[in-house]
Design brief:
Length: 735
């Protein structure tokens, strides 16, 4: 079955949605039933801004029976849930009627389309840059020979410039022309319409000037405008693709194979999506669960740090629940699938990532706000100038020259560069300091932060247990047993003791400990109960006990250590007015101890991934602009939903992808990022102010007919140079 696909990709339509149009494909095979609703996932191409998102969602929601319509701009995924007799074709037709391309959604197809779009823009940008360099060389010759160059020579140079510019406008400008044509065909308009108009008029007037022997042509200006616009479009495409990396990484984690037990006891490897509730699953040692299980056979230690934030492993047995994302450490276990993969904890986190991406898509950047006002103003001014000159008796040719001169001198190059160049400079500045920025609008959101939420395990602490109690010769004895175990506490003893021999006749007992012979004496290393010690546990410290055939049991205490620069980061942030809190899945006792050591008054322990998202939502309802810092899988949803987010370099891939930036070198990077963000936002505002001031001067000169092409080209280039130099100030000093 071939799904309907629009022939072109569109930009950002505006205006009221027309009635739905019939599509030629049958989308009914892609409709699924979920919780009593019909659901359909479509791939929408051409939606690039918050305005597109709102229009599509509103148009689809207007269909009878539609309960939910949610569009993700980063991957073009439109999810629709409805009841009643509305058909999938009617929903797809509603979107198609707005001028967007529509097809059935595929994760792989979406990713490939995004890469293809980015590659096409990069090639087009390179072609435009090469052509611009050559045209500018010819233009410099014309400018330098002004008054002395013969008409024939000048016409030849203009003609060569036109021959270079024409195929470049067709090839590199197709991204704007196709988008403008698609929406005009549906009775709509978008930002690419005036852009296309400016490119066509500038080129058309240049052709006329060349044919009539005029002294000036605008080929350089039209290609320069195209080049700068492609820079902005390319950066936007790359950032949108990177924004979807979190969901892609999580999908890869969920798409691993699972060992399913048949009724005859045979083990078969199947895809996670084939698992149904009640299936019996075999989880090998060292394997990570991708669905939620209820253990029916076996006992083993599990590492839940990525799921719950619990810093230390725990032992699970029959009847206990093992959540997707947990790592089986010791022995094979069997369990019953509590749900399908689509309803597991990983799936819930994926839903939170999706909601976070959609929420950020609605964030209007400074550049979006400026363009909304700037572009209509410029083109209205040019149109009024054209009409005014006609009214005072000027020829059509002269009126067109004034209008095009106005468009060129007010070319939005400075505006197009105002935000991107500041972001690029700031990104380079941060990269030198160990911070990799992943999101285009992250700096603007980071500059608004007033509340910082920190995960504990792996963020404020190192995330691995370390021996905290002092020991003598008994440490060497314990290490001989620990070297035969993969348990994290055993690894901590080995790290403290270093290299050495291994005990003889070692046996590891699941969930209990390790037993072996040292110098003819039998020793046990494990839990207090196993070695016969009635333990009164320290509420914030884990322990192992060593006992031989002679002597009393000896306790080994373990603790998750703080990051070395935790205190030096938290205290200055407080002094700068940021409120701080800890949000962790670890035990309340462990979280309380860390909070006490760092003098953090607000903290929450044993918080689930959903609980973290709920807490962030509550903070945002209070008006807080929240920065989330975390590293685990259980943090991924909160990282995506926060106003801005950071992840350490050692974080899980999904968490890194869900964050706005990844840092290395310690927690001090948080202060660096926040400082640079505030400076960058200020520089961007300065750049927009400079661009506005330039136009306040340039527009009156242009509309009164006092601008020559030479002055227009110099002024246009100078405005771009000014905002670039202003942005370079971000490289000076440290925040």
């Amino acid at each position: 079955m071939t799904a309907f696909t629009s022939p072109v990709e569109t930009g950002c339509p505006s205006g009221l949605a027309p009635p739905s149009r019939a599509v030629t494909a049958d989308f009914s095979p892609f409709v699924r039933k979920k919780n009593g609703l019909n659901t359909l996932t479509l791939s929408v191409r051409g939606a690039k801004c918050g305005g597109c998102l709102s229009k599509i969602e509103m148009a689809v929601s207007a269909q009878p029976g539609v309960q939910q319509a949610r569009l993700n701009l980063s991957n073009g995924k439109l999810f629709v849930a409805w009841t009643g007799e509305t058909t999938a074709e009617e929903i797809a037709g509603r979107v198609s009627g707005l001028g967007y391309g529509v097809s059935a959604f595929s994760e792989d197809t979406s990713a490939n389309a995004a890469k293809s779009e980015e590659r096409g823009l990069l090639i087009s940008m390179g072609v435009a840059a090469f052509a611009l360099a050559n045209i500018m060389l010819l233009s410099v010759s014309v400018w330098g020979g002004h008054g002395e160059m013969g008409e024939a020579t000048r016409n030849v140079l203009h003609g060569i410039s036109g021959l270079i510019a024409f195929p470049v406008l067709i090839f590199s400008g197709r991204h704007f022309f196709q988008s403008a044509y698609a929406v005009l065909k549906h009775g709509q308009t978008n930002m690419d319409v005036p852009i296309s108009l400016a490119l066509i008029l500038a080129f058309g007037v240049s052709i006329w000037e060349t044919m009539t022997g005029g002294q000036h042509a605008y080929f350089d200006a039209s290609v320069m405008l195209l080049f700068f616009l492609l820079i902005g479009r390319f950066l936007d495409a790359r950032l949108r693709r990177q924004a979807h990396a979190a969901a892609h990484d999580l999908a890869a984690l969920q798409n691993r194979s699972i060992n399913r037990l048949s009724t005859s006891g045979r083990v078969e490897a199947v895809r996670a999506e084939q698992i149904e509730t009640g299936d019996m699953i075999m989880l090998a040692a060292g394997e990570r669960a991708v669905i939620d299980l209820k253990i029916t056979k076996g006992e083993s230690g599990i590492d839940e740090s990525l799921v719950t934030g619990e810093s230390l492993p725990r032992t699970v047995g029959v009847g206990e629940t093992l959540y997707a994302g947990s790592l089986n450490l010791d022995h094979p276990i069997q369990g019953e699938a509590l749900s399908a993969a689509s309803d597991s904890l990983l799936s819930q986190i994926a839903d939170m990532l999706e909601a976070g991406e959609q929420k950020r898509a609605r964030y209007r950047q400074i550049a979006d706000k400026a363009v909304t006002l700037y572009v209509p103003f410029v083109h209205t001014t040019a149109a009024l100038a054209f009409l005014a000159w006609l009214m005072i008796g000027a020829s059509v040719h002269q009126a067109i020259l004034v209008a095009v001169s106005t468009l060129i001198i007010t070319c939005p190059c400075a505006l197009a560069l105002a935000a991107p160049v500041a972001q690029v400079v700031a990104s380079g500045h941060l990269f030198k300091r160990g911070v990799f920025l992943r999101s285009g609008d992250a700096l603007e959101r980071l500059a608004e932060i007033d509340h910082v939420v920190l995960d504990k395990t792996g963020t404020l602490t190192l995330g691995t247990p370390r021996l905290s109690s002092e020991h003598g010769s008994e440490l060497a004895q314990a290490a001989q047993l620990a070297r035969a175990s993969r348990h994290p506490l055993s690894r901590a003893i080995v790290d403290a003791a270093g290299a050495g021999p291994i005990a003889e006749q070692i046996t590891e007992h699941a969930g209990l400990g390790v037993e072996g012979w040292i110098d003819g004496e039998r020793f046990r290393l494990g839990s207090a109960e196993w070695v016969g010690q009635p333990e009164t546990p320290d509420t914030h410290m884990a322990s192992l006990w060593l006992v031989g055939e002679q002597g009393a049991p000896i306790s080994f205490k373990f603790e998750d250590q703080l990051q070395s620069d935790a205190r030096d980061t938290i205290d200055p942030l407080k002094q700068q007015g940021f409120s701080i809190e800890i949000l962790s899945g670890d035990t309340p006792e462990a979280v309380a101890r860390v909070a006490e050591r760092l003098s953090i008054e607000t903290w929450h322990g044993r918080v689930t991934p959903t609980g973290k998202a709920d807490r962030l939502a509550a903070l945002q309802e209070e008006g807080k602009k929240v920065l989330m810092v975390g590293d685990g899988l259980n943090d991924a949803g909160a990282l995506a939903l926060a106003h801005a987010s950071l992840a350490p370099g050692g974080a899980m891939d999904v968490s890194q992808s869900a964050s706005d930036a990844v840092y290395s070198g310690g927690l001090s990077a948080i202060r660096t990022v926040l400082g640079v963000a505030k400076r960058t936002k200020w520089v961007m505002l300065q750049n927009f102010g400079l661009a506005a001031a330039y136009n306040c001067i340039a527009v009156p000169i242009a509309v009164t007919g006092h601008v020559t092409p030479l002055i227009a080209a110099i002024a246009m280039s100078a405005s771009s140079l000014i905002v670039t130099l202003n942005a370079l100030r971000l490289n000076r000093g440290t925040p």
